[in-house]
Amino acid sequence: MENQAHPKMTVITVCFNSENCIEKTILSVLSQNYDNLEYVIIDGGSSDNTVSIIKSHADRISYWTSGKDGGIYFGMNKGIEAATGDYILFMNADDVFHNDNVVSEMAAFVERNDFPDAVYGDVEEETEYGVFHKTAGTLEQQPTKMVFSHQSIFLKSSLMKAAPFNTKYRYAADFEMLSRFYNEGARYENCGITVADVVVTGGATFDNYAKSVNEHFDILKSRGYDLEAERKSLLRRKKIVRTVKNCLPEFIEKPLFSFIAKHYKAL
After folding, report:
1. pTM of structure
2. What span, in angstroms and rounded, lies between the C-alpha atoms of 38 and 59?
């Protein structure tokens, strides 16, 4: 790969019953102006119109399949197995690249920086309280935190094929993989651009916050970290926030939490 002028970049979308949002993701990927892009879609056996939408773009999709599986990370592993690119990025249904130049800019960064194991950037998050820029965290945080979204990182496919997602984890397998590779010495580089616009008003992790947090800290515990106080603090804080939200009328809740979300880092 290091002798190629332009690395092959694979984007994988895993979806299930996503008829309301899958097309915008497909069009975002297909609109990328990079000439060595592979697009793989793994559908989990949708019963709505998702497959019909995929078929309508099949002539421009490198590979797609539809069938029941064990969940999102099983589907991601199917995508890894099918991918033939040098690098892989996962773009969820309902999420999009920030603009049409993202893949070409990331590929150029890879070439300029001697083909690192991973290249990542920032995201714009669409929440129920507005759209906010989320800057990637520092690599010093990587062993214990999810410092960037999986929609914003291209990772060498050779790493992922050799050690795919651990499907023991239903909600935090992305953190388990990305932190594991980093702990084993993989070279991560920040490309300094906004990679994706992601929707965080729903999804498996958002709807199962406590389970996600517990998996995350179970992973850390298995690696020898003693962070039980932080686990309890996060869960307690989330419970308090939900209680406050449920007590407030909407005309107060929306502006209040919009302000908190916008100024959180400053507070």
Report:
1. 0.90
2. 12
